[in-house]
Design a protein that fits this description.
Elements: H1 6-13, H2 18-23, E1 26-31, E2 34-39, E3 46-48, E4 51-52, H3 54-70, E5 81-90, E6 99-108, E7 112-121, E8 127-137
Antiparallel strand pairs: 1-2, 2-6, 3-4, 5-8, 6-7, 7-8
EC number: 3.1.2.-
InterPro entries: Acyl-CoA_thioesterase_PaaI (IPR052723), HotDog_dom_sf (IPR029069), PAAI_dom (IPR003736), TesB_ACOT8-like_N (IPR049449)
Keywords: Hydrolase
Length: about 140
């Protein structure tokens, strides 16, 4: 894997990640400091009835932080990174609907990026959850 940009790295990495694939998340769009992903509704991600489990939503926030941190031209010497802190606010439940994961990089330092993520129900456009996190690259 020899990505020329951080966006290339995400385009290559996401389809190969077992956890990302378990959630069914697909990259929709990625540009400098912004990433949009989508998680389709799946029965194995529910908690009760047709409500999406909060752990799946937290996983979406984490993946959105990572994608936003990598989004753009910058590529570290070593292709590795990790979310080092994350806060999640559950706004309202998600029911039987695909979810858009919209991440943006708020600040980028040499190795740390602060990123914000909104999870929005795709069809109803309801805000389901929001998060803020710090990601370390390299």
């Amino acid at each position: 894997m020899n990505p020329k940009t951080g966006s290339d790295a995400m385009t290559m990495f996401l389809p190969q990640s077992p956890f990302v694939q378990h959630l069914g998340i697909e990259l929709i769009d990625i540009s400098e400091g912004h990433a949009r992903l989508r998680m389709p509704f799946k029965d194995d991600l529910i908690t009760v009835g047709d409500m999406v489990h909060g752990g799946a939503l937290a996983g979406c926030i984490d993946i959105g932080i990572m994608a936003a941190a990598w989004a753009g031209e910058r590529v570290p010497e070593q292709l590795r990174g990790v979310t080092i802190s994350m806060a999640v606010e559950f706004v309202e439940p998600a029911f039987a609907e695909s979810l858009d994961i919209v991440g943006r990089r708020v600040r980028a330092g040499r190795s740390l990026s602060t990123c914000a993520v909104d999870i929005v129900a795709t069809n109803s456009e309801r805000l389901v959850a929001t998060g803020l996190g710090t990601y370390r690259m390299g």
